[in-house]
Structures are given as structure tokens and as C-alpha cells.
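Dissemination and training. As part of the outreach component of the grant, students in the summer workshop were shown how a complex can be specified as a set of sequence lines and then modelled as a single object. The example used during the hands-on session is reproduced here so that future cohorts can follow it. Participants entered these lines:
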Amino acid sequence: MSPAALSPIFSVQALSKHYGASTVVNNLSFDIAQGECLGVIGPNGAGKTTTIRMCLGLTSPDTGRITYFPGGSAAAALHMPQDAMAIKERLGIVSQFDSLDPDFSCAENLLVFGRYFGLKDAVIRQRIPKLLEFAALTHKADAKLSELSGGMKRRLSLARALVNDPQLLLLDEPTTGLDPQARHLMWERLQRLVQQGKSILLTTHFMDEAERLCNRLLVLDHGQKMAEGAPRELIAQNLESEVVEVYGAGALSLADSPLKALAARLEVSGETVFFYTHEARPLLAALADHPQLRTLHRPANLEDLFLKLTGRQIREDA
Amino acid sequence: MTERPTAPPALFRPPQISWRWLPVFRRNLLVWRKLAVPSLVGNIAEPLITLVAFGYGLGALVGQVQLNGTAVPYILFLASGSVCMSAMNAASFEALYSAFSRMQVQRTWDGIMNAPVRLDDVVFGEMLWAAFKALFTSIVILGVMLALNISHSPMLLLALPLLALIGIVFSSIALIFNALAKGYDFFTYYFTLFLTPTMFLSGVFFPREQLPGVLRLISDVLPLTAAVELIRPLFLGEWPARALLHLVVLVAYAVVGFWVALALTRKRFRN
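and obtained this result:
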């Protein structure tokens, strides 16, 4: 079943936010369907976190409409900011920085957080073993927070966001700073949530994460939507299918050589020349005459798309 | 209703308090229960040392103090004032250093507001929590005073709600400075420029009649003065004079203080 075929559970329409003269979010619209994982990717300062904060009612937008549809029902629509509390009762949030309570054990963190939703202690205590198991933290139930690794803390943050059994999760860079093992465990858990029918809005800087987890992607830059679609479709629509990276002594001179004609598009970054093409074989054959150069031939990926849409230059605030 | 700009809500709109302040209060209670004994020692050691040193040491030199025409032992005079001062200090410490840690350093408030809890409820819960700690500290100190046989007037029971009110007043005022603080250093100004003068101008250590004209006028409007004027007669088993006026002063400080603290905290969190 395609998630996009379902009615949206969350909808953002024409959202804008300015701070002084700078536009942080500019006329942004998107929907999230039930059981869909929507990824938001963009350079630092693209407006990802501000968008999430507006979705939570923590920052008030200048213009635009944010609507939550409980169970996908348009009749029961809830609007930010007037229904903020009713919406948050149905949301799970993992923010960019852990806000776990350092004075509490894992189990106490879940108990105390559940109380903020008005849940009875008995109900929360019933959920705690399942949540700890989901976070692979059963053996750490009574451990203090200082005894947890970075990955354990992020998983506890995720478990805490699930204490109210939300239908929609907003995750702001949930795997930043984690080692590969911890990231893979987090991905596996997030995929499990999507399979259970939960919807996820996820921001990330990792293209492999975006491609692996997300049904649909939103590329954001300068607060504006640059592209939207399924990861593979976006690549197919915007990029040539193959990339040949060439580097080594004299590689840069190729940018002005006849080889240029063998590629549809060419980019130079640092000491490397990127040839984008739908048919790499003639180019690879020609490159065989330059044995001192090192080449890497690979399919175009999301990172290529990201850099094409948002540019290769480093952002001032990055 | 969609594309027109929405004006942000006014900072000084009325507080929007729901029962969600209670889990905020209970969170702090749970932390405190783990650290209660060391925290208790820290909270009551200093006021008791002051009481013993000044009360018995200075008290031996001073002997008796004139209070509304009657002579009372200095230790009784000091004890009744210092319990108010302890409530003030306990509330201030909690609503400055501890609340700031939770708000800024540990990001506890950010975590709470990811759940359906308004900032208003967080600030209200923190205010009541600091007031509770002030009340608890003063009850322990009152217990020691009873054990030392400084006073055993049954009217001291009336002091309990008043000490809770003193806690509310000073935690509300402290939360104003919490909302304005960039770091912990800022609180040194509050202690040295407001709380320490308040302590000496409110009749805790010596009768306010000793103060020269201008200081006396300042003293008249300080919240701790109203608190001491209400609590001290209870130690003697008497009704406070002009009790209603002093109560109104304290309630006014509490209401205005909390309102301003809330508005400034909203401003801090608005972006």
C-alpha cells in the first residue's frame, strides 16, 4: 500500500518565518501521510529546526497553517497554535539535543515524562518494560543516565517520545553523533515504527539515512523547498545516472580537455573532477589513457542530488 | 484565516495555569527525595549557626530588646526574624540557581514543553516548588527552635501558611531574575544588591526603629518587613498589628512578582 494514497495525518501550508530581515522559512508546504516517513534534508541554517519548532508551537510562524488530523480524519482537524496542547498529546518528539533528566534512571525518565501527558502512574508503569525493550535498554532500567552511551541516550529519548503512544513522531537529527552500530540499531527501530503504521518526520544530514528510511524527501535550502519526492525518483529526475570522480596529479586540467564532451555535466570540487553522464563507458575508455589519474565510477546518489540543489560551498554558520 | 500574519500573543496576558504544573512539581520532588538529607543539612545549617552565634553571643551583650513597649529576649527577637529570612533564602536559591540549571543548563524545561505542558505551568510549578522548599526548611528550623525552647506559642501554627506565602513571594521575585539571567554570575548581583540589604533593613537582626529616615522608608515597603511584622508577634503568642495591611503587601508582591516573572520568561522563550 502506498502511503501517499492515504489521507494526511499532518499538513503544513504556506508556512513562513522571518527574523528581522532574514527569511528562515519561506512559503513552505508539505503533508505527511499515515505510515509515511518524510525526510527533511538541507544544509545547516536551511530552516529545518525552525520548521519543527513551528510544528510544535514553540515558535510562532509569521504566516501559514499547521494542521493535525487525528487518525487521518479531516473532521477532527486540530490547528496550531490554538489546539497546541491537544496536538502535542498525540505527538512524539526527539529534539536535536537530549533533554533527558540526568538525575533519574532510565525507568524514572519514562515515568516522569509520562506524567507530563497526564497519564496515570499505573498506565506508565505498564508501558515502561515494553519501551525499554524497544530501546534495547531493559538491562539498564535502573541505570543512571551518566552510565549510558550516546546511542543509549538517543534510544532512551526515542522511547520517551513513545510514552504517550503517538501517531506522529518528529525527530530532529536523531542519529547525529552516533557510531555506525548505534545508527543501524536506531534505523532498525525507526523502520519498525513505520511498519507499525506510525508516521515520522525526520531531519538528517546523512544521505544514506534519508535514502534508507524515508518514503519521501523534502530538500530545503534558505527556508525554501528545492525538491520533493521519493529518493530514487528525485535522483532519476534531477541527475544523470552515473558519476565518474577523477582525482590525482593533473586531474583538474581535464575540466577543459576534450573529455568534457563525453559527460553531460561536469563539476570541480577541490582536487576532484566530477563527470555526470548517462553512459560512462566512452569516458572510462578515454580515461584509460591517463594511468596517473585515479577514478571512481559509481551510480549517482542522494548526496550528488543534495550538492547539486544546495551547492558545494560551506555555509557561514556551518 | 490562513495567510494573514498572526501577531504573537502578548507577554503580559493573564497566566494560563492548568493542573499540568503538578507533574513539574513532582519531578522536582522526586529529584529532591534522592538528595534530601545533604540538601537539608545545607539549608538549615547556616541559619542555625547564625541563630546560635548572634542569638547567644550577641544576645548576651544586648540582653533585651524593646518591642512595642515590651522587653523581649534578643534570642526570641532574632529567631522570629531569622525564620523569615531562612524562608526567603531557601526560596531564592531554589528559584535562581536550581531553576536556572533546569531551564538553561539541563534543558529540562525544553523537554517538558515537548509534552503538552505550557510554559506557564512550568513556571508556576517551579514557583510552587521553590515555595515548598522554603516552607520545608522553615518548618525544620521552627522545630529546632521549639527544641531549644525559644518559643512554644501555639500561635506558631499560624506561621506555617505565612511562611509558605513568604516562599511564594521570594520565589516569584527570584524567577524574574532567573528569566533575565545570562549565567549564574548574574545571581550574585541579586544576592548582594537586593537580598543582603533586605536582610538588614527588614528588622531581622535589630529593630527597624534604629534605621535613619530614608532607610526606614525603604524598609517600610520591603516584603521581608511585612513578613517579619506578621511572624514575630506569633512567637510571643500575640496577634500581629495591622495584619491585613501586611498580608496585602505580601500578596501584592507575590501576584505582581509572578506575573512579571512569567512575562519575562515568555519573552525569553519566544523566538
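The CA atoms of residues 204 and 224 of chain A lie 16 Å apart. Students were then asked to discuss how this feature might be tested experimentally.
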